Amino acid sequence: MKLRCPTPLVIGILSLAAILPATSQKEPRALPKQQTKAKTGPIRVNGFAATVNGDVITLNELIIKVAPLQSQLMAQFPRRGPNYETLLKELKSKILDELVDRTIIFTEFKDRVKDFPDHEIEAEVKRIVQNVYQGDEALFRKYLKATNLTRDQFKEQQRKELLVQNVRAQHFGDVPPPKEPELRAEYKKWAVDNRDRTKDVGTYKRIYIRKDLGDGPDAQLKLADELTKKLENGGDFAVLAKEYSNDSKAQEGGLWKDVPRTDLNSVFGSILFENKGNGVMKPIDDGYGFNIIQVIERKLGPAKSLASVREGMKRRVISEKKKDNFEKWMKKMRARAAIEKML
Fold first, then answer.
1. CA distance 258 to 260
2. Distances (CA, A) of 27 to 24, 91, 167, 177, 242
């Protein structure tokens, strides 16, 4: 399973739902918003994840970066187990390495951090609110409260992120200027990650197995696993949905047509729209039940036109061409740095 790390999709490690208002519905609607049960309140984590030349990377910084994909892992591995633990360990290690590199770069070029005016940072924050929090400012404020950040502190984090991106694009040797096919290819990749996710729409089939029915959660998870195996072996989704599903679309064969992403829990929205393929997914835990999903169609939201982001695409292509030189530089910088990891 490939988990992509959107940047910057940042929420507390206990689970994305730790900062979201839970709803209690007897019949969940279309993988509805905010179902997962979790403790609420600000997440305050003391301690260091690493030090780089005396600069501290806190556990809270790591938590904020790890959390979104951990939430997906938790939903996709209801039983947790060794595969979950292995993937989580790899995720934490990868993100900590990225934070170490970011700290090295920031220390080297911090005199340039003021090159980014406030209006540019504010525009980046608005983009994040739009794409990550579906344009919901109240949800974004709950994230800030949960991670014990002020808006200004969050803006400074984004300023550092933009500095690192800029450094990667502008240094490490001269390369040929980008050609039009290269710009179009880079834009195609960029558009997927930078689209308006609030306009995503999906059609999928779903069998929903509630935890509070039958012989309880363990038995219901076992049933969900058995149904998934039947589907993987060619079972008829519509027939099984009519017999076993506990939602309002059961008698329609579990078909949910043209569901806006904004109707979905954020974690499930990521699972459905940020992955490819149309195979039957393993049971996904939403806190109240287990969802067996097969995506039929994804209609992804629009992105800005190539004409409006052409300069940014040029920088991205140049950065990619300089990647080898950048990695050589980073290797030297890591060797020179005093790095201590506490994980």
1. 6
2. 9, 34, 50, 56, 15
**Given a cut of 80, is residue 342 above it in pLDDT?**
yes
Do 279 and 135 lie in one domain? The reply is: no
C-alpha span between 255 and 225 (Å, rounded)? 20
pLDDT at 85 over 90: yes
Does residue 326 carry a pLDDT above 90? no
CB neighbourhood size of 58 (10 A): 15
| Listed residue (196, 221, 197, 199) closest to 211, CA to CA | 221
What tens digit of pLDDT does each residue of 60-79 get? 889 888 887 888 899 889 98
Helix, strand or coil for residue 85?
Answer: helix
Do 331 and 100 contact (CB within 8 A), yes or no? Answer: no
- If you ran DSSP here, which 8-state letter would residue 14 be given? T
In a domain, 246, yes or no: yes
Residue 285: is its pLDDT beyond 60? yes
Q: Is the entire prediction scored with pTM above 0.85? A: no
Domain total in the chain = 2
CATH number at residue 217: 3.10.50.40
Confirm whether 181 is domain-assigned: no
Q: Which domain holds residue 112?
A: 16-173+332-341
In a domain, 7, yes or no: no
Which range scores top for mean pLDDT: 2-11, 30-39, 284-293? 284-293
